[in-house]
Design a protein that fits this description.
Elements lengths: L4 E2 L9 H9 L19 H17 L6 E6 L2 H13 L5 E6 L2 H11 L3 E7 L21 E7 L1 E2 L4 E2 L11 E4 L16 E5 L10 E6 H4 L12 H5 L10 H17 L1 H21 L5 E3 L10 E6 L2 H13 L2 E2 L10 E4 L6 H20 L2
Parallel strand pairs: 1-13, 3-4, 3-5, 5-8, 8-9
Antiparallel strand pairs: 2-10, 6-7, 9-10, 11-12, 12-14
Helix pairs in contact: 1-7, 2-7, 3-4, 7-8, 8-10
Length: 365
């Protein structure tokens, strides 16, 4: 069976090696006579998987010991509420940097909890760039935290460098670019990420959290909305998404085996360069959405000269076996999501298709 040329924005491609490893143990995990999703989450067999996933993530991202690693459910969308519920106390303000739809959704939920403000935004330019932000402008002693979205899947923009805040907690939604490059975890106080881009399948959400924040949590919260519930129970207070965590562990093993984040980051740089060079050298036939200084290495967004040509491109791409190249409905155009598991070979095939499509189109004029 030929694998699809999968450029979906999420749920996204998984490494073929991971899927084969899961298939080999599908009916009989480690001689248990059961599939992984049939095992009790209290069993030693599953507990080992659970702990290995945490240990591998800590190793790959160099997460310090003073940070908790939590496995939650509800996706990043639930974190839009959990973050302010746990961190936005009365009398304090949560500051948000708006760089796309997902940061808009995050602040909408925070407004239901307490005081918020927008301290930077690129909305007026249809989110073509990461908005400039001067952390020195934060002089409010009542700041609860600063929130940003590290990569914007819809618009194809990404933070190239992150602000360093010495006085205030920095919270980041990294759902679409976590594990794609090296990070200085100490610069963040809380990172959350839905797994379905780079970490694994949908169903599990990873939270990396400075333990100091746990002491400031709102104790009047419902049990399942309190970070302490999961920190105190190793994310096993209730039944976790065991299959998703198992696949997360396999993805982390795959990253570790192929060379860790240095190899992953170099490969992602290579894939992004191939596509952006194709766009930039097309003499305006392909038009990138994001400003060059803010371009994402995870989601390459572009359009063609008119709607008719765009539709023809997407139709022919689908016939050629490319999946998921339609842009988000709010922006239109095209989008190639090139997460960790998308092979360089698939990107080369896409570049070849784009080049041939352009040549054929120009010949017909």
């Amino acid at each position: 069976m030929n694998r699809a040329l999968n450029f979906n924005a999420g749920p996204a491609a998984l490494p073929e090696e991971v899927l084969k490893a899961a298939e080999a143990n599908w009916l009989n995990f480690n001689g248990s006579g059961m599939a992984i999703m049939e095992l009790s989450h209290r069993s030693k067999e599953y507990e080992k998987v659970h702990n290995q996933a945490q240990e591998l993530l800590r190793k790959l991202l160099a997460i310090p010991d003073n940070y908790e690693i939590l496995f939650l459910q509800g996706g990043a969308s639930l974190q839009f509420s959990m973050v302010p519920m746990n961190l936005l106390t009365e009398g304090k303000t949560a500051h948000y940097i708006l760089s796309g739809v997902w940061s808009e959704k995050a602040i909408q939920e925070a407004k239901k909890i307490g005081l918020t403000s927008v301290i930077a935004s690129s909305k007026e330019e249809n989110y073509r760039s990461i908005p400039p932000f001067d952390c020195l402008s934060l002089t409010d002693n009542n700041t609860a935290y600063v929130h940003l979205t590290s990569n914007n899947t819809i618009y194809g923009t990404q933070w190239q460098t992150f602000p360093v805040l010495e006085k205030f907690p920095l919270v980041a939604d990294m759902s679409s670019d976590i594990l794609s490059k090296k990070l200085q975890i100490n610069n963040f106080d809380l990172i959350y990420a839905g797994a379905q881009k780079n970490l694994g399948p949908s169903g599990v959400t990873v939270v990396i959290m400075n333990k100091e924040l746990l002491t400031k949590s709102n104790e009047s919260l419902p049990t399942m909305l309190n970070y302490n519930t999961f920190a105190e129970n190793n994310s096993l207070y209730n039944t976790p998404p065991t299959l998703a965590i198992y696949l997360l562990k396999l993805v982390l093993e795959w990253v570790d085996e192929i060379g860790g984040l240095p190899f992953i980051e170099n490969t992602n740089e290579e894939k992004a360069k191939l596509l952006y060079d194709c766009i930039d050298e097309s003499e305006g036939f392909f038009i990138g959405h994001a400003n060059k200084e803010s371009r994402s290495k995870m989601n390459v967004t572009f359009k063609l000269k008119d709607e008719e040509t765009t539709k023809r491109f997407l139709h022919q791409a689908k016939e050629a076996g490319f999946i998921g190249l339609n842009g988000h409905r709010s922006v239109g155009g095209c989008r190639a999501s090139i997460y960790n598991a998308v092979p360089v070979e698939h990107v080369l095939q896409l570049v070849d298709f784009m080049t041939k499509f352009r040549k054929n189109s120009l010949q017909k004029i």
